[in-house]
Amino acid sequence: MTKLSRKGILLAGGHGTRFYPATRSISKQLLPVYDKPMLYYPLSTLMLAGIKEILIIIWEHERHLFETLLGDGSQWGIRIQYAAQEKPRGIAEAFTIGEDFIGDDAVCLMLGDNILYGDRIATVMQEASAQTEGATIFGYYVQDPERYGVIHFNDQGMPIDIVEKPKNPLSNYAAIGLYFYDNRVVEISKQLKPSARGELEITDVTRVYLQQQQLSISKLGRGIAWLDTGTPPAWLEASNFIQILEHRQGLKIGCPEEIAWRMGYINKSQLLMLAEPLLKSGYGHYLQTLVS
Prior knowledge:
This protein has 292 residues and is of the alpha/beta class. 31% of the residues lie in helices and 24% in strands. It has a seven-stranded mixed sheet. Strands 2-3 form a two-stranded antiparallel ribbon. A two-stranded antiparallel ribbon has the order 7-13.
């Protein structure tokens, strides 16, 4: 049996207008969430899923900033590529932009401003990544579902619809910005029509799988935190959340160097080399203590 190959896509484009004026000169995904760039957190999630080939979709004029920060990923034992989005046409455009990168593989898409935390994240991600057919999305219980794409269920608890920002939501489960699809997603995306707001909606992609009865919903329980850092208040809440946990436990969250080492992507010597230029910030010292 051929092992499933899955690639990852991170969305890091967009104008970040809800952060203006802070993001007039820099991508939102490069802003720090406490002690790390925002993009480190979703990147770490993909790495925990066992995904080692990742495409980051950016604005072309910001390419050098991402390349300076992340390079080609080889320092973490992964491979990072970049592709430019000309203008925001919707999340689902990622699959047509990344068609050549995806090739014949399955794909996982994650939004660059989403953060997941919990002791089962690696297991949950790897289980979803191992699915050979269909799609998997994740539902998270929120008190204000009208702000999100909402998953509607029937009396048996089976998903029956996904509605984008409904006025009268029929459940409190929001679909978070993390999606696992098989290779058919490329052709499905090509056939989409723009929505009323002129975008190719990721909800419409997922709905195709739902209609074909090939959609799995994984509900994330209380032991997992989902943080959407898409607004300044949410960004500040996420920064405070990370700071409190890291200070309390002495463990880093969303640390790609540590994840690369624990996943076996790099060895001890490589980890120590990565730590050396980061010693003054304390980040490098943390990496050293992992293997001391």
